[in-house]
Amino acid sequence: MRKSPKEIEIEKEMLNRLSGKSARAASLIFNDEEAQAMQNYANIVSIKRLGYNDHGPVHMRKTALNALIMFDLLGEAGIKFSLEEDNIGTVEDSKVAVLISSLLHDVGMSVGRENHELLGVVFANPVIERTLAKIYPQETEKKTIVHSLIIESIAGHMGTQDIHSLEAGLVSIGDGCDMEKGRARVIFLLSRTPKVGDIHKYSANSIQKVEIVAGEEKPIRIIVEMTESVGFFQIEEVLFPKILSNPAKPYIELYGRVAGEEMRRYL
User: Fold this and answer.
1) Strand order in the sheet with 220-226
2) Rounded to whole angstroms, how far apart are CA atoms 125 and 127?
3) What H or E segment, with its residue span, contains residue 89?
């Protein structure tokens, strides 16, 4: 299955951040034909049938990259992830879980929008099982724990299900941070006829850049740059709600800014 130049670019950027088990997990998912097929089909359903923005292979890779950037910033700040805090896993195990769940979190869109986070668990499970079997061939307990964490992260990425781990929190926020205008490019070109729900399309099209960098007061600073104030819809209705009830909330600063105007702080 051929990949787009953007997919390949993001994969290379991710692999530069990975080593050990997480690098192996990334390579396995990147080269899994079933995973790629599910990602591609989810995008067809999302864009062509439902009129939504990108929920396919580029988006899932971008979500994973966002989550990994935040993961590393928390690690640099000395924050313990949930598996380590509970003395049942290592930082490397947590990274494996964040990576795999991010790369598969939207495969449920291949059925539709409603409950796609729960349906995604069903579709992703065979890929998760065979990937973890290669990462943890002799570690049944560790494999079971990481598997459960991946399921929590996929099921909880929309904020419709309570999540209780920092790892799952990063997947949800990483998903919410993929709002730059390129994500809405295809659907924006396909349809110019106004319809209900277009606020998502037009607000996303105004987002120029989302930066995830080290914060001054907290480990992570997220800055959303936009050309028009309609972009605040993306922050206030998509990203901010995902952070409010998130285990990662204490570690995040959130800002939004229209070009040429003052920064607005949310957290």
Assistant:
1) 207-214, 220-226, 252-258, 264-265
2) 5
3) none
Residue entry with tokens 């050990």: 20
Number of residues written out for the chain? 267
Question: Which tokens hold the place of 172?
Answer: 């949800």
Task: Describe the chain by its helix, strand, coil percentages, rounded to 5.
Answer: 60, 10, 30
Q: What are phi and psi of 48, to 5 degrees?
A: -80, -35
Q: Please say whether the beta carbons of 135 and 25 come within 8 A.
A: yes
Three-state DSSP at 75 gives helix
- Residue 256 pairs in a beta bridge with 224, 264
Q: What is the pTM of this model?
A: 0.92
Residue 50: its H or E element: none
Please, what are the averages of pLDDT over each run of 10 residues along the chain (267 residues)?
92 97 98 97 91 88 98 98 98 98 97 95 98 97 98 95 96 94 49 52 83 98 95 92 96 96 95
- For the chain, what are the domain ranges? 5-265
Measured CA to CA, the distance from residue 247 to residue 168 in angstroms comes to: 8
97 exposure class (CB count in 10 Å sphere: 0-12, 13-18, 19+) = buried
Return all residues near 252 (Cβ < 8 A) that are at least 6 apart: 173, 215, 218, 219, 220, 221, 222, 243, 267
Residue showing tokens 């972009």: 231
